């Protein structure tokens, strides 16, 4: 195959929409695109006399487009860096340009999205950067999704959780599921391909199981991976057995609960995503051909003339390279995850779907109309004062079906928040804490020993346990705010008191003991017995005893005495008996 002349295939460079001056001598060009990384173009110019370096053609943010003479665009982005290199006094000027997705990586954000699907979130983020968005819809809508990363990292993570690919192409953000598509290029091994290789490995698990728990139904959930979509697997007979379940991989299944799915649908997506990633990474094909603008990530190439390696390959990385030796395209079909140098050097990736440790929260809302009245929302002032949580459950002592301690924090109380399985979508409030403004109630401490413990309500009502050494310091008390109404039971005494004007009532069925708000006392029962080992005294301004049937008074000696007058009368016969009867 005869290569075309260099002038016929040389790329056109547009700067801010206008073709670059022909006086600029382009000596080298490399354009690299892959899933989950910003597309980058590196242009090298011979710059004798420093005309380019000293000029203003390439400044920060300059719009740069690389295209073929026939109009096909290879790259569109803006200048983000320069490099001046001198070799024996001969200057080369290097221009670095990135596609618009690089802006998404500059800085991180802490915010939340409510009742949105992942594709809706990605569409919103893309529009924030002035990009058009082509997003395959994701079905699941989540009540709460936290972002604690850059927009770039967050979109990458959303794509990873549903097994999607994402990239930016000519100011269009694409968020796509890997799918079968017609081959964008047909390449013959002897005529078109300068180099071609296929590597396959069966050393990968056969399937994935993702487990989790849903508090809504109090049940465990589990997603078992299905077979990966054929759209991401090569069709060559040489490697077909390596990407699918093999004799080696069929013995291996990976189970995990670290992903923290919130429902069955997400568990299934996570399991399918893992299996698809293993299958895609099992086969890696690499090829080099003359410049082929039609080869793009997200598309596929059809290889012919390669024997059992003939077939379709899903393209995951493309590099166009222009030098004085020619203009060629290199492609990779295989792992969908980014594998640039920066990925091998970075430490553990920050994630928006995992938060280890505890955080401080301030209560903002209590009671979920669509869930539990005990659910709580907080904001995270230590992260961002406007960052709100999803609905959190409250840890309870002895909590269960209609049982346990119900002691909720109030709005604006400071609480400590943890996350179920490290997932910030599933917060759990461990308890409230005191601080410099919200002080705890006073309690007795002596020689580093706590002598009283107290449960106090918002209004000041208290239950107190005394653990002192003296009998009167060992007690349990219930006190209403202000202290006027209380019940105290100690080893020394039992005291119940209410202020004047407050009635008191003790009732057992039809029997009762009542103190009225006027101080009157009423005792009522089917039978009332007053018994004393020594004396019983009843006194008052007026004392009246009444009986509906019989009123009896008896004793070894009975005395009826009036200091002024005594009157004994009867509505019928009156009888006085005695031995003798004395009337004086």
Describe the structure.
With 584 residues, the protein is mostly beta strands. The protein has five domains: 6-98, Phage tail proteins - horseshoe like beta roll fold, CATH 2.30.300.10; 103-176, Baseplate protein-like domains (Phage tail protein beta-alpha-beta fold); 185-335, no CATH class; 359-432, OB fold (Dihydrolipoamide Acetyltransferase, E2P) (Beta Barrel); 443-493. The strands form nine sheets. An eleven-stranded antiparallel sheet has the order 2-1-5-6-7-4-3-21-22-18-14. A five-stranded mixed sheet has the order 24-23-26-27-25, with no helix packed on it. Helix 3 packs antiparallel against helix 4 (151-162). Mean pLDDT is 87; it is low at 1-7 and 340-348.
Q: Determine the number of helices (DSSP H or I, runs of at least 4 residues).
A: 7
Rg of Cα set? 43 Å
Q: If strands are numbered along the chain, what order do they take across the biggest sheet?
A: 2-1-5-6-7-4-3-21-22-18-14
Gross morphology is: elongated
Number of domains: 5
Name the structural class.
mainly beta
| Sequence stretches where pLDDT stays below 50 over 5 or more residues | 1-7, 340-348
Instruction: Kindly state the number of beta strands.
Output: 37
The main pleated sheet reads as: 11 strands, antiparallel
Beta-strand portion reads 35-45%
End-to-end span in angstroms?
Answer: 156 Å
Mean pLDDT across all amino acids? 87
What's the multimeric state? single chain
* Proportion in helices: 10-25%
């Amino acid at each position: 195959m005869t290569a075309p002349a260099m002038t016929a295939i040389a790329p056109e460079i547009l700067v801010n929409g206008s073709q670059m001056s022909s006086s600029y001598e382009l000596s080298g060009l490399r354009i690299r695109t892959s899933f989950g990384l910003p597309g980058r173009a590196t242009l090298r110019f011979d710059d004798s006399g420093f005309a380019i370096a000293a000029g203003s053609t390439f400044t920060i943010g300059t719009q740069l487009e690389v295209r073929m003479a026939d109009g096909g665009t290879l790259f569109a982005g803006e200048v983000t860096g320069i490099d001046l290199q001198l070799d024996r006094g001969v200057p080369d000027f290097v221009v670095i340009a990135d596609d618009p997705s690089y802006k998404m990586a500059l800085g991180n954000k802490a915010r939340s999205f409510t009742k949105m699907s992942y594709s809706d979130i990605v569409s919103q983020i893309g529009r924030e950067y002035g990009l058009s968005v082509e997003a395959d819809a994701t079905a699941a809508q989540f009540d709460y999704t936290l972002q604690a990363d850059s927009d770039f990292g967050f979109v990458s993570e959303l794509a990873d959780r549903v097994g999607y690919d994402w990239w930016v192409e000519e100011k269009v953000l694409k968020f796509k599921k890997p799918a079968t598509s017609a081959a964008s290029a047909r390449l013959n091994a002897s005529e078109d391909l300068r180099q071609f290789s296929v590597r396959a490995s069966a050393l990968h698990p056969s399937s994935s199981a993702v487990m989790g728990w849903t508090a809504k139904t109090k049940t465990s959930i589990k997603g078992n991976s299905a077979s990966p979509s054929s759209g991401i697997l090569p069709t060559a007979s040489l490697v077909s057995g390596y990407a699918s379940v093999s004799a080696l991989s069929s013995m291996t299944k990976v189970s995990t609960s670290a992903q923290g799915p919130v429902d069955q649908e997400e568990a299934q997506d996570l399991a399918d995503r893992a299996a698809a990633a293993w299958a895609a990474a099992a086969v890696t094909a690499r090829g080099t051909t003359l410049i082929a603008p039609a080869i793009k990530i997200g598309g596929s190439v059809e290889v012919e003339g390669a024997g059992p390696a003939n077939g379709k390959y899903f393209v995951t990385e493309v590099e166009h390279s222009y030098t004085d030796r020619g203009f060629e395209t290199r492609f990779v079909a295989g792992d969908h995850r980014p594998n640039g140098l920066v990925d091998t050097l970075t430490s553990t990736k920050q994630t928006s779907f995992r938060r280890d440790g505890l955080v401080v929260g301030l209560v903002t809302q209590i009671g979920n109309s669509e869930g539990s009245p005990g659910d709580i929302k907080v904001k995270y002032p230590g992260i961002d004062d406007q960052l709100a949580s999803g609905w959190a459950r409250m840890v309870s002592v002895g909590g269960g079906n209609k049982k346990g301690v119900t002691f909720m924090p109030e709005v604006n109380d400071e609480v400590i928040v943890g996350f179920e399985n490290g997932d910030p979508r599933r917060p759990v409030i461990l308890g409230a804490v005191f601080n410099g403004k919200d002080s705890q109630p006073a309690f007795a401490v002596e020689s580093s020993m706590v002598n009283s413990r107290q449960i106090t309500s918002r209004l000041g009502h208290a239950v107190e346990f005394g653990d002192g050494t003296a009998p009167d310091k060992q007690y349990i008390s219930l006190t209403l705010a202000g202290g006027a109404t209380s019940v105290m039971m100690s080893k020394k005494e039992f005291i119940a008191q209410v202020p004047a004007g407050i009635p008191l009532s003790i009732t057992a069925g039809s029997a009762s003991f009542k103190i009225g708000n006027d101080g009157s006392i009423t005792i009522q029962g089917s039978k009332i017995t007053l018994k004393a080992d020594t004396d019983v005294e009843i006194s008052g301004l007026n004392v009246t005893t009444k009986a509906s049937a019989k009123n009896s008074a008896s004793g070894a000696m009975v005395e009826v005495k009036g200091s002024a007058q005594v009157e004994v009368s009867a509505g019928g016969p009156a009888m006085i008996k005695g031995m003798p009867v004395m009337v004086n």
